[in-house]
Design brief:
The chain has 149 residues and is of the alpha+beta class. It has a domain of 85 residues. The chain has five helices and seven strands.
C-alpha cells in the first residue's frame, strides 16, 4: 500500500511501507555507525516524486543527504506509520538511579501513546511569496539557521 505525503518544504511524493529488506537495513550495525540507514530506507520506500518543492533534482532520484532534515524526519515518520500503524506505545526508564526499571505504558491509548499520523507538518518553505534561500552565518556551508516565514 502506498500513500502520498507532503513534506514541510512542499516536497510531495508517494511512499510505501517498509518490507523485510528495509527492516534488515535497520538492524545493520555497519550502516548504523555510518549513518546511512535512514537514507537507504527513504530511498527504498520513496516511490515517486510528484512535486519537488524547493529542490532541483532534475531527472535524478532524490539524494536524501541533500534534503532538509525536517523533510527526511517527516517522510520517515510517515513510512513508519504505513509500516506499523499510527499509534506508538512506549516505555520509559525510572528516573531513580537506584531503580532504572523500564515502565511500560499499557493504559488506554488516549493517555499512553500518540498517533504519529496526527503530527502536523507546517509548510514553512512551501510559501511561494518567500522562496527558500539559506543564509550562511558560519564558514561551514552545511550549517545555517532557517527562519520560518
Amino acid at each position: 500500500m502506498s500513500n502520498t505525503i507532503t513534506c514541510p518544504s512542499g516536497l510531495i511524493g508517494r511512499i510505501r511501507g517498509m518490507k523485510a529488506r528495509e527492516e534488515r537495513i535497520l538492524a545493520d550495525r555497519k550502516l548504523a555507525r555510518s549513518g546511512a540507514q535512514l537514507e537507504q530506507i527513504l530511498a527504498a520506500c520513496w516511490e515517486e516524486t510528484i512535486d519537488p518543492g524547493p529542490y532541483d533534482f532534475g531527472e535524478q532520484p532524490i539524494d536524501w543527504g541533500k534534503v532538509l532534515q525536517g523533510d527526511r524526519f517527516f517522510a520517515m515518520l510517515q513510512i513508519r506509520v504505513l509500516s506499523y500503524g499510527a499509534e506508538y506505545a512506549f516505555s520509559v526508564p525510572c528516573e531513580n538511579r537506584g531503580c532504572r526499571a523500564r515502565i511500560e505504558w499499557e493504559q488506554p491509548c488516549a493517555s499512553t501513546c500518540f498517533a504519529l499520523s496526527s503530527l502536523a507538518a507546517h509548510p514553512g518553505l512551501a510559501n511561494p511569496s518567500r522562496p527558500f534561500s539559506p543564509v550562511f552565518r558560519t564558514r561551514d556551508p552545511a550549517c545555517f539557521p532557517y527562519v520560518s516565514p
